[in-house]
Amino acid sequence: KQEVTQIPAALSVPEGENLVLNCSFTDSAIYNLQWFRQDPGKGLTSLLLIQSSQREQTSGRLNASLDKSSGRSTLYIAASQPGDSATYLCAVSHTRGYSTLTFGKGTMLLVSP
Amino acid sequence: DTEVTQTPKHLVMGMTNKKSLKCEQHMGHRAMYWYKQKAKKPPELMFVYSYEKLSINESVPSRFSPECPNSSLLNLHLHALQPEDSALYLCASSRTANTEAFFGQGTRLTVV
Q1: How does DSSP classify residue A8?
Q2: Does B92 touch chain A if contact means CB atoms closer than 8 Å?
Q3: What is the pLDDT of residues B44-100, one digit of tens each?
Q4: Residue A88's closest CA among A100, A75, A71?
Q5: How does DSSP assign A42-108, residue by residue?
Q6: Cα–Cα dist A74/A96, whole Å
Q7: Which of B31, B43, B72, B97 shows the shortest CA–CA distance to A89?
Q8: What residue in A sits closest to B108 (Cα-Cα)?
Q9: Contact assignment for A43 to B48 by CB distance below 8 Å
Q10: pLDDT digits (tens, 9 = 90+) for A46-83
């Protein structure tokens, strides 16, 4: 059974810092990995999707990397802003059986002014 | 347009009520999903529809009944719910299985 772990569970940083969120998964047979952002009580916003054949994806201040063989992904946020405060969820779409998303428990990020 | 629209945003219902949650997307996606999310937990998959057919039911109690009337709409019919069913219900869609998933803003359900 696929298990997804996110470290740290919570992170508090001052504005302007660069930061890294970590995601690991136990079964490397994945189609893709997706990073989401969730504001309190709201839905999920897709940030980046990395296909299993890719090593990284970039969108603005966000860069996500994938090392499928070691079962790891990182989300790098450059020059953090208070508006980045949210919970960040990592999810993998795996190939065994019918493919659905398996989520990690998320990293709660607080960026203080 | 990458929007998935869910209505209502908030719903309070009694344990004997019947209500429905609605989800709509116009991206031409052929896979649609219902997830349940409790506070401070990740989303849990409930149902998957692929090409308007139910593909996955994650052992969800029968008091939750999904329906996919056409490729753009997904409903979740609720009947005789329990207070522990109170949660954020999220709808998502993707072009097909294994492609990028887009989520709606959710319906906050409270069962009293």
Answers
A1: -
A2: yes
A3: 999 999 999 998 888 899 999 999 999 999 999 999 999 999 999 999 999 988 889
A4: A75
A5: S-EEEEEEEETT-SEEEETTEEEEEETTTTEEEEEE-S--GGG-EEEEEEEEE-SSS--EEE---EE
A6: 23
A7: B43
A8: A41
A9: no
A10: 999 999 999 999 999 999 999 999 999 999 999 999 99
Q: For an interface test with B, which of A33, A36, A37, A44 has the most B Cβ atoms less than 10 Å from its Cβ?
A: A44
> Is the Cβ of B6 closer than 8 Å to some Cβ of chain A?
yes
Contact B90 A44 (CB under 8 A): yes
* Cα–Cα distance, A104 to A38 (Å, whole number): 13
**Tokens read off for B3:** 């929007």
B33: closest CA of chain A, how far (Å): 9
Matching residue, tokens 């090409």: B51
Cα dihedral A55, A57, A58, A63 sign: negative
- Residue to test with chain A: of B34, B60, B98, most A Cβ within 10 A: B98
Q: Is the CB of residue A8 less than 8 Å from the CB of residue A110?
A: no
Q: How far apart are CA B20 and CA A94, in angstroms?
A: 31
Residue pair B111/B93 in contact by the 8 Å Cβ criterion: no
Residue B1: closest CA among B73, B81, B93: B93
What's the CA gap between A59 and A65, in Å, rounded? 12
